[in-house]
Amino acid sequence: MMARAASGTRKDFLSVLDFDGADLDRCLELAAQVKADRPLGRQAPTANALEGRHVAMLFEKASLRTRSTFEIAVHELGGHVVALHPDAALGQREPVADVARNLERWFDAVVIRTFSQRLLQEFAAAAPRLHVVNALSDSEHPCQAVADMLTLREQWGTLRGRTIAYVGDGNNVAVSLAHAATIMGAHVHVASPDGYQLPDGAVQQATSVARHGARLRLFNDAIDAVAGADAIYTDTWTSMGQESEAILRRDIFSPYQVNEALMSLAKPNALFMHCLPAHREEEVTADVLESAASVVFDQAENRLHGQKALLLMLLSGAPAR
Ligand code: CP
Ligand code: NVA
């Protein structure tokens, strides 16, 4: 955890927990700055920050937002992207450690979307000069959490003392949200059915990294979790790789749908959040998703700015400005 590269910057971003509170604060500041500078195009102060740097993309699962925003981020920072074929790089042809040691001879960083968090850790451990970024694993989705924190910071100024209620599966998105929000000083309520709650390890981690008195609480009942919430967050009931469980999950999670009735039990101006893709009339109704409370496309936009900040922090030792 928290490996530092020779320059003193973090080497990898496999988990929100690879950043401490100061890192996350700095990342969000930088993200806000690159967002403000984006209209400057090639005149932006960071437009050449990754000149001569190469970033590999290795995606074993589908992606719209993460892939697009990483490719645009590297391009707008003056770097170069190569999309690798996952069958060649993470298939049976050679051990993961060998792939990692090949890539570090050519690339500065690799952005990986895969199933196993352990594979990401193996990759990062095998290649001490290669920056490894988790673009989603079965257990965590830390880049999403950076965009989510940026979105809330824009809405609220500070997250301190706010309450975010996550309703649904205690999955990868929920874990990274719990990590990041408690670091930022927000209380997190997670409502899930038995057997689908946030893993114990994630609860302990979020509790130990929490700042400014933030608390994490688990609930069974969505109604209890959203009382007093400033934002309600949900995600798909069936994550990538769980498709064979979709019918069972639709049944188990139906009491956890975010609809107008549930939104009305949160604070009056509560926001609605979703990492997308959304499934209308499953985890969220169309009216909530399309309502004025919904910030889902801000979250999607902020993937770009958050990931630019991450790349700057990992790859360029010096501050961006
Ligand atoms: N939210 C998110 O990660 O979207 P993609 O799966 O499209 O990358
Ligand atoms: N929990 C979802 C998130 C997709 C961005 C999944 O893993 O499929």
Describe this structure in words.
The relative contact order is 0.16. The protein is of the alpha/beta class and 321 residues long. A five-stranded parallel sheet has the order 7-6-5-8-9. The protein is globular and about 55 Å long. It is 41% helix and 13% strand. The longest helix is centred in the C-terminal third of the chain and has 20 residues, at 296-315. The protein has helices at residues 21-37, 65-76, 86-90, 96-106, 117-126, 142-156, 172-183, 200-209, 222-226, 246-253, 260-263, 286-289, 296-315, and strands spanning 54-59, 80-83, 109-113, 131-134, 163-167, 187-191, 216-219, 231-234, 271-274. Helix 1 (21-37) packs across helix 6 (142-156) and helix 6 packs across helix 13. It binds phosphoric acid mono(formamide)ester and norvaline. Phosphoric acid mono(formamide)ester is lined by residues 63-66, 136, 144, 275-276.
